[in-house]
Amino acid sequence: MSRLPNPLPLLSAGDSKNSPCVIKCGKCSGYGIFESNDDRSESLLSPAENVLPTLHSDGNRGEPRKRGKRTIRTDSTDAKSSADVLTLDSLAVQSVGDCVDYGRCTAVCPTGIDIRDGLQLECIHCAQGIDACNQVMQTIGKPHGLIRYSTQDELAGKPVRILRPRTIIYPAIILIAAGLFFAVLSSKFSFDTRVMGAPGAPFTTGSDGQVQNNFQVRLVNRSQLEQRYSVNVVDDEIVAKWSSGDNIRLMPGQHVLVPLDVRFPLQNTAVNGYVDTKLKIDDTSGASREIKLRLSGPR
C-alpha cells in the first residue's frame, strides 16, 4: 500500500497565510525587529544619515479616509473670495483626506499589514506600498508621497536635523573599520612560513668544529602562481640550507613541511650556549619574510 502524502504542511501554510514571510524569513523580518528596538523619531533611510529605514503613511494628509472622487482643496484666501457661506458639502470635501481607501497598499504588502496604522514589526520595507499608493494618487490627481520613507519628526512638522551624533559617529566607525581591514589586507604575504625544532638532539657538533641545528619549516604557497623558495641567514658566519639541497617548489595552494639544516662555528655559542639570528626566506615573486631564530650549541 502506497503511503499517503502528509497534508499538515499544506494546512499549516494555508492557515499562517502571510506569517511565513515574517517568521521564517530572518533577513527581512530583522528590519522590523531592529526598528522595534530603535525608538528614534528621526530615523530615515538616507545615505546622509545611514540609519535604519522607516516607512510611514502621512496621516495628516491622508486621514480621514473616504472613498470616491476628490476635488482640489483651496486655501483660506480662495475660500473667502469664492464663497462667503460654507455649505455642508463644502465642509465635507475640505475635511476629507487624500486617502481614498482603495486598499492597494494592503493588497500588495507581502506581510499583509496596513501601513496606514503606523510602523509595525512585520513591515519589511519593500516599498511596494509606496508604488501602489503613488499609482492611485496619480489616478485621482493628487501628489505622490502619501506613503513614503520619512521620519516621525517630519510628519509631526518638526525640523529635520541632518547632522546628529549618530550621523557622525557611525560613518567614523565604518571608516576606521575599513581602514583597519585594508591595512591588514595589505600586510598579508604571498606565502606563510613557520619554523619548528626538529625532533632529536638540539644540536650536533661535527669534526670540523661546526655546530648543526635541525629545524622543520612549514611553507604554504598562498599565491596563484608556482613559486620556488630559497633560504639564507642574515649573519655571514651562519649557513642555512634545505636538507634536499635544492630550492623548494610549491604549486598554488600547496603546503609542505621541509627539513632545514643550519650550521655555524663552535665559538658563536661559547658564551651563552645559544645565539640569536634571523632566517630569511624568499620566493621567485620577490616576496621575503624574516623569522627570528635561536640556535643552540655547546658553551
Which value, in Å, is the CA radius of gyration? 38 Å
Kindly state the number of beta strands. Answer: 11
| Category by helix and strand content | alpha+beta
Q: How many DSSP H or I helices?
A: 10
Order of helices and strands: HHHEHHHHHEHHEEEEEEEEE
Given the C-alpha coordinates, what overall shape results? elongated
Share of residues in helices? 25-40%
* Strand fraction: 15-25%
Number of domains as seen in the coordinates: 2
Mean pLDDT: 78
- Straight-line N-to-C gap: 88 Å
Q: Indicate the low-confidence ranges by residue numbers.
A: 26-30, 44-53, 73-83
Largest sheet descriptor: 5 strands, antiparallel
Write a structural description.
The protein contains 10 helices and 11 strands. The protein is an alpha+beta fold and 299 residues long. The chain folds into 2 domains: 8-162, no CATH class; 191-296, Sandwich (Immunoglobulin-like). Strands 3, 4, 5, 7 and 9 form a 5-stranded antiparallel β-sheet that branches. Strands 8-6-10-11 form a 4-stranded antiparallel β-sheet, with no helix packed on it. It has a two-stranded antiparallel sheet with strand order 1-2. A hairpin with a 4-residue loop joins strand 4 (204-205) and strand 5 (210-221). The relative contact order is 0.11. The model is unreliable at 26-30, 44-53 and 73-83 (pLDDT under 50).
